[in-house]
């Protein structure tokens, strides 16, 4: 079998592993035996986590219940429309494999910098103790009014995991969800995700402008991920550069699937949601959100990668801008942008949704351009980003699908 050639055999049952150091059947039994040792105090969440653990074929297809007391240096990052985002350090770290000799999980952590351990900041909750020297950097998304979470609240994460699997099978990756915890102060539940070191694409636009060939790799991977979401007959619904996260200068991943839904399902939230410069004109006119609306947003992101600034950053995001977009006003083309690039960008933000390319067509365009406009290997000419902490989840996760 192919899996045994790639992943080897389980040391316990001798059957082919489903992933590196991962036996789905044996690990499922280990998780099941531990079900009685934890609870989220919510039957829907317990069943959700348990189902994933029983069916996980690798460590990124499962969630864990994470005790809030095991989180340190919790710090506010951003406030969204329906959630609050924090960064933190998880002392236990991500599951890697089962240690049969010691009968426990081996986990991925890293040694924490002394500056992180010695930080004194009254804005930080649960600061690290002096003897806590290892951990795993995570992001916490606190869900508003989720103390009585039901199936409806879990829908976003069901969709995220569904997209995560599809995107990976297509040769790319989404930011993995790794657990759920509960804020003891508010009783709201928090989804725990891997923290990516570069932050959002929006925060790195200037770097993309001055490292121009990076954008072809970035757009190829983004379009690959968007293609997978569209193949599931889903639309993202809130596609902008702030919802694209950077692992390194090449790997950019789609995040925040809070408005992601089937194309035949109307938005359950009343009104038009999203960041105005990225909202397609037909949506502003009250038409349903479609795959083509995601492509319009993609075109705006293409422009930002050439300009180094967010679209329409210098004017109010108000009714006048909405009217201008509906009339066909678009960001001004940056001089010296490659004509071929401009042509594709303009097609993406065409007023007529039927004239926009598909995500698959965009993927094919940028795949060709990766070879045509190769990134120079001379790293001395690249503008660096200081203070980066690298995680190895992308290479670990993607290898099994090539």
Fold blueprint:
Blueprint: H1 2-7, H2 24-33, H3 43-55, E1 64-65, E2 71-79, E3 83-90, E4 94-99, E5 104-108, E6 110-111, H4 114-117, E7 134-143, H5 151-169, E8 177-182, E9 189-194, H6 205-210, H7 214-231, E10 234-235, E11 244-246, E12 252-254, E13 261-262, H8 281-284, H9 291-307, H10 319-327, H11 339-348, H12 359-372, H13 393-398
Helix pairs in contact: 2-3, 5-7, 7-9, 7-12, 9-11
Task: Describe the 3D structure.
It is a single chain. The protein is α+β, with helices and mostly antiparallel strands. The protein folds into two domains: 171 residues, Phosphorylase Kinase, domain 1, CATH 3.30.200.20; 183 residues, Transferase(Phosphotransferase), domain 1. Helices cover 34% and strands 16% of the residues. The strands form four sheets. Strands 1, 2, 3, 6, 7, 8 and 9 form a seven-stranded mixed β-sheet that branches. A two-stranded antiparallel sheet has the order 4-5. It is globular. The two termini are 16 Å apart. The relative contact order is 0.10. The C terminus is likely disordered.
In short:
The protein is α+β, with helices and mostly antiparallel strands and 402 residues long. 34% of the residues lie in helices and 16% in strands. A hairpin with a 5-residue loop joins β11 (244-246) and β12 (252-254).
